[in-house]
Amino acid sequence: MVDFAVNVQGSGPPEWLRERLAGRLEELGRYPDAGEERAVREAVAARHGRRADEVLLLAGAAEGFAMLPRLGAALAAVIHPSFTEPELALREAGVPVARVVLEPPYSLESVAGQANAPDSAVGAQGGRRGVPVSEARRPQVPEAADLVVVGNPTNPTSVLHSRESVLGLRRPGRVVVVDEAFADAVVGETESLAGESYSDVLVLRSLTKTWALAGLRCGYFLGHPDLLARLNQGRAHWPLGTLQLEAIAATCTPEAVAESQRLAENIAAHRDAMIPRLRALGIEVCEPARGPFLLIRVPDAELLRKRLAGKGIAVRRGDTFPGLESGFLRLAVRPAAEVDVLITAIAELGL
User: Residue 333: what pLDDT?
Assistant: First the structure.
């Protein structure tokens, strides 16, 4: 299918990265070397201007989300609409979760830095999907929340929150987790907190999207050593394999970082070209958009999704994201030739 559903860029890693991974295949008969693991942490630290003890290597961002219950939160707040895996991991571990559902245009500025109110539209049991929040019941982060999770840029809204608004979530005794899985797809990685050290902020990074490594599972946490130690407690030995270590080290070199920024510039250009073409069809596009995907709204999203699938085009449904109604779809940003196929199909099918 023509894939607008998955946000991975390309069908596989670039040739130079494949060659580096292939060069390590002869070493798979032995366990990874502890010295190499330290060297990779140092490479990640150098990439972000941090210390090596502020890096925890992960088998993908998904492993990082699964670790969040180890922080021992009494109440976790998850900013929505957003990726649902962090909330799932917390709930499955028995951690109470408050959903903080943002209103369009889904900006964090409306909740960061505000004090909690008794009539807040946030419930410890998860709140209600698709219920509008009046001015008197603005979504707010409960002051009792000792863990807050936010995506930046956020999946699926493509909103890039300001670093000030993210830092505005901090409170004494609270840990803020920033999911920056798509941050390297933003030109200049603006608003990222990856290069800043705070005792109460954890930044989660993934290599899956930009480098098309979904099948290898690579990522890392950046944060204070004390927080990382709590996350790492009880973990299995050799949690990452040789190829994962190689991939992380390879994509942290200055040359790779420069390449990722060229890719981010391409994504921005494709996104800027894609938005007016969608709007010309009468489609509502949520803006400002800064990620490698777009959130759109159409009269009957489910019907359009099924009809596009019948034409061999895959798009991501939006109603599985808390806070979004059934009229939303998410589209990965793609080059003009693929967008041509999508636009032609929608024009033929109608909305």
Answer: 98
Give the integer Cα–Cα distance in Å for 166 and 78.
13
- The secondary element (H helix, E strand) that includes residue 178 is strand 175-179
Whether 134 shows a pLDDT value over 60: the answer reads no
pLDDT digits (tens, 9 = 90+) for 92-105: 999 999 999 999 99
User: H-helix or E-strand containing 195?
Assistant: none
Query: Is residue 120 predicted with pLDDT exceeding 70?
Result: no
DSSP β-ladder status, 2-3 and 313-314: parallel
Listed residue (184, 156, 186, 151) closest to 169, CA to CA: 151
Residue 241, C-beta contacts closer than 8 angstroms, at least 6 positions apart? 28, 32
pLDDT in tens, 287-326: 999 999 999 999 999 999 999 999 999 999 999 999 998 8
139 CB-near residues (< 8 Å, 6+ apart): 100, 101, 102, 103, 110, 111, 120, 121, 122, 133
For 217-232, b where at least 16 C-beta lie within 10 A, e where not — what string?
bbbbbbbbeebbebbb
Q: What CA–CA distance (Å, rounded) separates 90 from 194?
A: 23
Q: Is the pTM of this model over 0.85?
A: yes
CA–CA separation, 265 vs 187, rounded Å? 6
DSSP letters spanning 75-103: SEEEEESS-SHHHHHHHHTT--EEEEEPP
Per-residue pLDDT for 186 more than 70? yes
Using an 8 Å Cβ cutoff, are 324 and 131 in contact? no
Q: Exposed, middle or buried by CB within 10 Å (0-12, 13-18, 19+), for 261?
A: middle
The token pair at 234 is 């009880």
